[in-house]
Write a structure and sequence with these properties.
- By secondary structure, this protein is an alpha/beta fold.
- It is built from 14 helices and 13 strands.
- It folds into 2 domains: 246 residues, Rossmann fold, CATH 3.40.50; 69 residues, no CATH class.
- It has a 4-stranded parallel beta sheet, sandwiched between helices. Strands 5-6-7-8 form a 4-stranded antiparallel beta sheet. The chain has a 3-stranded mixed beta sheet with strand order 12-11-13, covered by helices on one side.
- About 2% of the residues have low confidence.
């Protein structure tokens, strides 16, 4: 059956907490700009996992939560540059995001909470962390005390004393320790809310802990996201969640997709080498072809995106679109573990697509259609 690589311990397995209630949380976008192909890769990877889980355990037994961060420093800065409100910018970018999801043929998640709509839950979990003496209030800011959590670094294998060597840490006078991170930020800039500690807004990390807890509970099966989120975002999520809910498991399995590279460098907005989903769409590329391209490399490995990769994927999709359709034959096919062994082996879409191409060469077109549909690649009838 299904096995997935767990970043937390390096093993490949999958034993759900409750087979009747499979729960997955994936970090969604900060909606200050259009999403790029690297974001799109993560969307597609976890959409495939969502589909596989539904196939195995049944659609009614799988919950998928993907949040939207609709207030953040980046949103405030971008809205000021565009001379519009944060609310308008976030709304516009969220609409674009949904259109990009539709273009990539991603299923809607079970829940899609937005930070601005979950402030009471966020305040509630922050107060629990304070009550448990894992956070402190200073000058209207609430800081998580990393030294209060003995297992800090369990996901990323980082030691506190090495953090400054690996990431840029903002020096702030309100921190007892410069490794401590914000749970609540005192501010009157941009959208803000009243809280027991004064007016402000939540820090980035605490949002996901609050929303995953509200919609999935203290313990759930899978937490996913891009490799760039492993530290500090996911590390901080673990620390604050387990300190809020003493004795909780939080997430049993942690999954991280690899970077998307352009000319050997990670695609990112900060480097200015990014291609948005919208850029590809404008070129007239079918979203299913782009989806095939994003699944052509194993999800945990870095992917080097190129015009040749996209062109080859378009040709492959065009080839599949020319297959004859036999409705009776298609409906009679039931996928089994033999057909699905590559995808059950840590979502090995590279081998799975190679297997599909082999079946195409043998003219097993109905089976090809069904196997493609399972990973969200739809072929016209």
């Amino acid at each position: 059956m299904l096995g997935i690589y767990n970043t937390l311990d390096g093993t490949i397995s999958f034993e759900p907490i409750d087979k009747e209630n499979i729960r997955m949380y994936v970090c969604g976008p900060t909606v200050y700009d259009r999403i790029h192909l690297g974001n799109g890769r993560s969307l597609v990877v976890f959409d495939v996992l969502f589909r596989i889980l539904r196939f195995i355990y049944g659609e009614d037994h799988v919950k998928y939560v993907r949040n939207i961060t609709d207030i953040d420093d980046k949103i405030i800065k971008a809205s000021a540059e565009k001379s519009i409100t944060e609310t308008i910018l976030a709304s516009e970018m969220t609409d674009y995001f949904h259109k990009d999801c539709e273009y990539l043929n991603c299923l809607e998640p079970t829940y899609e909470p937005r930070v601005t709509q979950e402030i009471p839950e966020i305040i509630k979990i922050i107060q629990k962390i304070i009550d448990n003496e894992n956070a402190y209030v200073k000058d209207g800011n609430v800081m998580f005390s990393v030294e209060s959590y003995k297992d800090y670094g369990i996901l990323s294998n980082r030691k506190l004393e090495t953090n400054k060597q690996n990431i840029r840490i903002e020096e702030k006078e309100y921190k007892n320790n410069q490794d401590d991170f914000l749970l609540w930020k005192k501010t009157d800039k941009g959208i803000s809310w009243d809280s027991p500690w004064g007016r402000g807004r939540p820090g980035w990390h605490i949002e996901c802990s609050a929303m995953s807890n509200k919609y999935l509970g203290e313990n759930f099966d899978i937490h996913g996201g891009g490799a760039d989120l492993k530290f500090p975002h996911h590390e901080n999520e673990i620390a604050q969640s387990k300190c809020a809910y003493k004795g909780s498991l939080f997430a049993k399995y942690w999954m991280h997709n690899g970077f998307l590279m352009i000319d050997g460098k990670k695609m990112s907005k900060s480097l200015g080498n990014f291609i948005t989903i919208g850029d590809v769409k404008i070129k007239g590329v079918n979203g299913n072809a782009l989806r095939l391209a994003l699944l052509s490399t194993h999800y945990r490995k870095p992917m080097n995106f190129s015009n040749k990769l996209l062109s080859d994927s378009e040709k492959m999709y065009d080839k599949f679109c020319k297959m004859p359709y036999n409705e009776e034959e298609y409906n009679s096919i039931e996928l089994n573990e033999f057909n699905l062994s590559p995808i059950y082996s840590d979502l090995n879409t590279t081998s799975y697509i190679a297997q599909i191409n082999g079946l195409y060469n043998r003219k097993e077109y109905s089976l090809v259609r069904k196997m493609l549909s399972l990973i969200g690649v739809e072929i016209p009838k």
